[in-house]
Specification:
The protein is 26% helix and 22% strand. By secondary structure, it is of the alpha+beta class. A seven-stranded mixed beta sheet has the order 3-5-1-12-9-10-11. The chain has a five-stranded mixed beta sheet with strand order 7-15-14-13-8, sandwiched between helices.
Length: 555
């Protein structure tokens, strides 16, 4: 059952929701029986190793796999030539080019080829024998370098989107977003205090404890099964099919346990390589990233350069805000960075605003989400300026935020949100202000800080199936990988709806053929969206039970 956002009756009290039962998957994770992707094995399975570029930017002149193919134990070798050209209709443009380098490499660590052999050692040795000829090119690593006049181009055909007039020359600026309201000049003229500062932040990796890993088993009839750890196995299916030029029906993805993601596993890196190697070798193939490769080649947060200027009256009323934000996208456009402009002033009701944001490609791995992607950098800049204004006008930082906080009905500078619904920002700030810990004296080397931030709740689609077994237990199957205990959250909601003990609920994360389509676990959506699918499935189950009882009892 796919859920749509709708009003749901609110109970005043719950029997199970709000309790802390033993997690259904807790014992296996404690005793080591839980199976992660790297734990998976199959009969006749062989091992893959990925060859990565040692250069940040270079043309690929040739790739010779002859010697590698003759190495002991080698069963298959793949290069970009084994994959179809990127489709113009890709859901995420450039994802195929990021999977494996084609005409050139654009960051150190980008995949150039992959080998499958009987052992990991043999695969690694064979990969070292692949002869790649490069023509090294100048590289850019920061937004300043990439946006400079005459900067080396990562993409010779990248034309900036979002400008008033379409430029005739390519650049490293993939996109510009612009928003304004009110009269910015008049707003700053009205202010008694104006503070402006420039901020830079570096890339930060999610640091999940489990490296990327997968197993692919491709049969002679053209179907493949994939075991992997991800934040969305339906995403793995669609992205892998897209990169291989396959139908999604040719792929079945089975979710393994996940050892952390934090947004970093909302994309794919290995699965199409493993499928193609398996297809060529006619054997199951496992690929496990080394930690070094995780840091070199998987998506971190973007580095940024941000300028924020805010004006305020002496009474604390904010009169104007101006922000200029440039986000590194990594080697290809299409990152989350542009959302920072939508978040930079979101917590505040500022009448006069100008926001200009840029997405800039640089010779680094492609950015991927990490806990409200792009928002923390924007909040860091804005909140620092807000604190400075509070010091200038000698106002408590929470009171300054309360005075200007958005509330229900206020407009947000975001095409995704528009007008705020009930958000509870003021109530949260008041609760912090009134808490005893906010006013207790500080000891040596202690500090106390306050900040606000904004992120979207993304609904998207979720599915759930609920089955009642002969012994009165319920099996709840969802398509959301367990991130942070979502299994037990689903079980609690099912127990509440069905009126049975939570220990009699068996929550299961189903594969792509066991449950309906479910979007990635991201954007604070799983508990709400997948939870609502569970609630509605439980209610449908109760309805069906009543109908059957009515037939049996002739009433």
């Amino acid at each position: 059952m796919t859920v749509a956002v709708e009003e749901s009756p609110v109970k005043k009290s719950y029997k199970w929701v709000g309790t802390r039962p033993v997690r259904h998957d807790g014992l296996e994770k404690v005793n080591g029986k839980a199976r992660f992707a790297a734990d998976m094995t199959k009969p006749r399975m062989i091992h893959g190793h990925v060859l990565r570029s040692p250069l940040a930017h270079a043309k690929i002149l040739s790739v010779d796999t002859t010697e590698a193919e003759s190495m002991p134990g080698v069963k298959a070798v793949v290069t970009a030539a084994d994959f179809p050209p990127p489709s113009k209709n890709e859901g995420f443009p450039h994802r195929s080019s990021n999977l494996i380098a084609r005409e050139k490499v654009r960051y150190e660590g980008q995949v150039v080829a992959a080998v499958a052999a009987t052992t990991r050692r043999q695969a690694k040795a064979a990969a070292a024998k692949i002869a790649v000829k490069y023509e090294e090119l100048p590289h850019v690593l920061t937004v300043d370098e990439a946006m400079a006049d005459g900067a080396p181009l990562l993409h010779e055909n990248l034309i900036t989107k979002g400008l008033d007039t379409t430029p005739k020359q390519a650049s490293n600026i993939a996109k510009r977003d612009y928003f304004e309201q009110g009269d910015l000049e008049a707003g700053f003229a009205e202010a008694d205090v104006v503070y402006e500062h420039e901020f830079t932040t570096k890339v930060v990796h999610q640091g999940y404890i489990e490296p990327h890993a997968c197993v692919a088993d491709t049969s002679k009839d053209g179907r493949s099964e994939i075991w992997c750890s991800s934040q969305g196995h339906f995403m793995v299916r669609s992205a892998t099919a897209e990169m291989l030029g396959w139908e999604t029906s040719q792929l079945k993805v089975i979710p393994a346990e996940i050892g952390g993601g934090f947004g970093g596993k909302t994309t794919i890196y290995l699965e199409p390589l493993a499928v193609k190697l398996s297809q060529k070798a006619n054997r199951p193939v496992k690929i496990v990233m080394r930690r070094e490769d995780v840091f070199k080649a998987t998506g971190p947060t973007p580095g940024t350069k941000i300028r924020v200027k805010i004006g305020a009256r002496k009474d604390g009323t904010l009169t104007a805000g101006k922000a200029w934000l440039a986000y590194e996208s990594g080697a290809f456009p299409g990152s989350w960075g542009m959302l920072g402009g939508w978040c930079v002033f979101a917590p505040y009701d500022i009448p006069n605003v100008q926001i200009e944001s840029f997405e800039v490609v640089v010779n680094k791995p492609v950015n991927i989400a990490y806990r409200a992607p792009s928002a923390p950098m924007a909040a860091f800049a804005t909140e620092t300026v807000i604190d400075q204004i509070a010091r200038e006008i000698k106002m408590d930082p929470i009171e300054l935020r309360l005075l200007n906080a958005v509330e229900e009905g206020d407009y947000n500078h975001s095409s995704m949100v528009g007008t705020f619904q009930r958000i509870g920002l003021k109530e949260t700030l008041e609760a912090i202000r009134d808490h005893p810990n906010y006013k207790i004296p500080l000891g040596p080397n202690q500090g106390r800080g306050v900040a606000t931030g904004f992120w979207f709740n993304i609904a998207q689609s979720s599915s759930a199936t609920v089955n009642l077994t002969e012994n009165g237990r319920a099996v709840v199957v969802t398509g959301s990988p367990d991130i942070g205990g979502s299994r037990v959250s689903m079980a609690l909601m099912a127990a509440e709806e069905l009126g049975i003990d939570v220990k009699f609920i068996q929550p299961v994360v189903g594969d792509t053929e066991a449950v309906g389509f479910t979007d990635v676990t991201e954007g604070s959506r799983a508990t709400f969206a997948t939870g609502m699918a569970v609630v509605r499935a439980c209610r449908e189950l109760v309805t069906q039970l009543r109908e059957r009882a009515a037939i049996m009892w002739d009433c």
